[in-house]
């Protein structure tokens, strides 16, 4: 018992083995021996020792630790059917409303849930992502860009140091040999559990006990990529980081929202999910607790916000599962200005097992999932490797897929890349869905495009005419829209002083009428704001039609539509003297009127600088 108290397990075990051999009915010796077997990670020996103790005629109170130890090992091994009768017997020793009874009932609920889940497995076939990614002792917490062409993960070195590594996909679909993410980011200290924006140009990661300076033991830092260079990491500041634990970040696709784990005061349990939003000046606002039903009185871990911004994956010890940490999914509901995460659902077996599960990443298209899997040997965790699997249909249907746009924004005259902002606006609500910026050196961008609505996309830069584009995925299937395959969209912006012109692609009229519909306000507010920012600019607003119908009627309709736009802009504060409304009818088609699609392109409103 002295060796036991000093945690010298290897020395204590032979004495306890001898005690059990000489006195098989010695309850305490059996229980202590079982505990030492657990301590040295020999679960099967511990289980058989506890089971031997339970066969000894003794006061149930004396056997409590044997019941507890045996049942928890059975749950850990996934032997739910064996655990249930043991727990049912154990539960009889406690008053129904006692704290101990509630603990046993919780274990019993886990055993029953696990037994049922194993009987109804999902069609999941995990496989290692790539042999080329197997570097260091372990790899875990994988995150990818929206196009799945770049991966960032945490690598554990033999000396215990954690670094962030990255790899890109080859043309053949394999993965290149990983390289350190950046010498500006990795240090001899630990860096890990990163999150990427959809374009892969903003990373938030965890650094613990860092010489970079911080507020607590583990803080969150960010770095921005320009061209091929990552900036010096910056602490996210005192709103996000505290003297408590902050870790396991998850960025929204546009990098404007951040979910993370913290044990700061104000939560429902020790470690909870918290959310912070990024203000336009780049500062992170005071976080709010995600609250129930996501957070529980137990620990939550590893949040992952899907690229659609409407599905949250996370790990939890508190929700009913198969034992330990299980992975769950919650969907966002919005009621006016209030947003609330719904009741979490367990992802099921074999995604979840009796072992701890964490760090799930689901691709933007909803087809694939990536996670770290701890390879087992003799019941012990060995090395953690990155695995992938196709998301089963039952889960894929709950994850709204998103498409992504990627391309380059350049000057229309010089063809040089420019720093531009890409805004995605929901035309039904006039609310911003996402905002991303191009790379200052390359002009490249990646923007997530959700399904299920009318969206306006605006590309703008100081000193240039803005470009508007329209996307409608309301009633189209994934196959029809090519969801998840990505859309290549390069764009050139006309310098303000070159008398360029652009089409207003998000103006809507009823057929044959000139009254603007409500969905047009987003476009008109954009144009009004442009004219306010450039107060000396004068423009022509030109209406055009296709070749169908009476030419005189078409000409009149085009004039009235152009004038309706000018009148609306005047109501937004633009002086009428700065606008000239004209109609050209069918006389200036953008393309030949050879198809319905072509005619639709010709029915348009253009604006040009005078």
UniProtKB/TrEMBL annotation:
InterPro entries: 6-blade_b-propeller_TolB-like, Bact_OuterMem_StrucFunc, CarboxyPept-like_regulatory, OMP_bac, OmpA-like, OmpA-like_sf, TPR-like_helical_dom_sf, WD40. Residues 496-610 form the OmpA-like domain. Signal peptide: none annotated. It comes from the Bacteria. Keywords: Cell outer membrane, Membrane. It is found in: Cell outer membrane. One of its GO terms (cellular component) is cell outer membrane. PANTHER family: LIPOPROTEIN YIAD-RELATED, STATOR ELEMENT OF FLAGELLAR MOTOR COMPLEX. This is OmpA family protein.
